[in-house]
Design brief:
2 copies of one chain form a homodimer.
Chain A: H1 4-14, H2 18-26, E1 41-50, H3 51-63, E2 70-73, E3 97-101, E4 104-109, E5 120-126, H4 129-137, H5 143-146, E6 153-159, E7 169-178, H6 182-190, E8 201-202, E9 228-234, H7 237-246, E10 251-254, E11 260-265, H8 277-280
Antiparallel strand pairs in A: 1-5, 1-10, 1-11, 2-5, 3-4, 3-10, 6-7, 7-9, 8-9
């Protein structure tokens, strides 16, 4: 999707309805990142695993709500994530998937219909797009968005609370905020508990075990200009690291940046559609 | 605990530290309701069930976060609810428990050590005490608290989103709020997503299937004075009704009003203690 055609399609989809965006993804004609698409709707990180591990993973999310804000869970074996969309089919409605076998990345695909299992449980987790929009709307431009790069992410020394085989350090993302607006940025993001909530740390990166803030472990480096403070938020890569540590025989996630776009409004109080018996059950 | 001795103990414990309150409950010397005790700390509803039903129940809570705001889940078979307290032993630290067998109340006890099972999973759910305190602090006195009665609760016609055997109508609690302050009361409670959040309805009770607002299905009737609007919040009795519908062979809940008092500050962003390896694991 880096070619001319892909970029044109992206620009078209930015102006398109949620239905059109989902169709383009479902049919496989759009396979790239989802930033800026389906504006106004909640996007979600994805983890799919056999039911045997689902209770432990759900406990891991409940115990670590800032890096792992759970927004939806499927019935076992049901690819319809009916609490988050009227017609979401999780086997096709994400632009790209990463497949992990025994904790190692085994490949990326754009459809998982052929490897779907009857014992799979789907988890959707909130992502940072939501609070980033709120910060920018409050007049706090974010460098990585302005410069079209990926937010810098770091392995911190903050332990997550383990559950079963899921454990590890918290991954955090960094955004530099003007000194005088740190408290405001914290308050704005705290209002989005399903999008990582308030930052876990700000100021000296060494305070959470980050040796060099210019050398991220994931994503692209971003400057901390004079008069700015590095602020660190819990990051959705944390569950990915915990999943690798757990070495499940199989686990499927979204490819980073290639999220599930849901039918849930970004400012909804809860990420659940009201029941609609004929569609859902 | 209705006798003179019980009342004196309650008055003493109202002034006592969290540690002293928990010891009195653990030793069985205090067996009554927990309203007003351990002030400043989060109190929680309780549901304990075999692991075989835990994933479905957890999905039910995730899909119905307003009536069932999940605040803690134990490891299977571990009676220490270590994410919500440094030394909580769930077998003894609740003043009174209800035991359900095949969906029917089979008795109430003050300790469940003798019926604890190695496959039990403990669920703690947020309760209305938190947002009620916030309303009263904003100068909105609540009739049932002022008059020392139980809040009126009603079976509404709002369907919850089912998960496995758990399903049923949402139970709601009613508080009458002065007309001019309805929006304010909604906004205040919305800030407490782990305590039922914003109301699900206000105004005409018939709008959610309540025929007579003076005849609650649970709790005590409360007036809706001239110039007041009945406001309805999702209620923690909802999961109890869903549990009865599921007819589990065994399930244990707190006795209504007799809650778990946790170590979590009432205004904490997330209901999880930071890991303390030696104590927790």
């Amino acid at each position: 999707m880096r070619g001319q055609g892909g970029y044109r399609l992206y620009e078209t989809l930015r102006q398109s309805s949620l239905t059109d965006v989902r169709q383009a993804i479902r049919q496989g004609s759009y396979r790239s990142h989802t930033a800026g698409l389906g504006q106004g709707y909640l996007q979600a990180n994805l983890a799919i695993m056999p039911e045997a591990h689902a209770l432990d993973f759900m406990r891991y999310c409940q115990r670590n709500p800032k890096p792992c804000p759970l927004t939806g869970v499927s019935d076992t074996g049901n690819p319809k994530l009916f609490t988050m969309g009227r017609d979401i089919d999780i086997r096709s409605d994400v632009p790209a998937y990463n497949i992990y076998r025994d904790g190692r990345l085994a490949g990326s695909v754009t459809d998982i219909g052929d490897i779907w299992q009857d014992d799979f449980v789907v988890f959707a987790l909130g992502c940072s797009f939501t609070f980033e929009r709120a910060l920018e709307q409050a007049g706090l431009p974010l460098w990585h968005i302005q410069n079209n790069t990926t937010v810098p992410m770091f392995r911190s020394n903050i332990e997550t609370v383990p559950a079963g085989p899921f454990r590890g350090k918290m991954v955090v993302s960094m955004r530099a905020i003007p000194e005088g607006r740190v408290a405001e940025a914290a308050a704005i993001s705290r209002a989005y508990p399903l999008a990582h909530g308030a930052p876990v740390h700000w100021g000296d990166p060494a305070g959470i075990g980050i040796a060099d803030v210019s050398k991220p472990d994931w994503g692209d480096a971003a400057p901390v200009p004079e008069g700015h403070v590095p602020m660190f938020w819990a990051c959705g890569v944390t569950p990915q690291v915990a999943i690798e540590a757990a070495r499940l025989p199989i686990c499927i996630t979204h490819k980073p940046g290639h999220m599930l776009i849901t039918d849930i409004a970004e400012d909804a109080e809860v990420p659940v559609l009201a029941p609609e018996p004929e569609a859902a059950f």
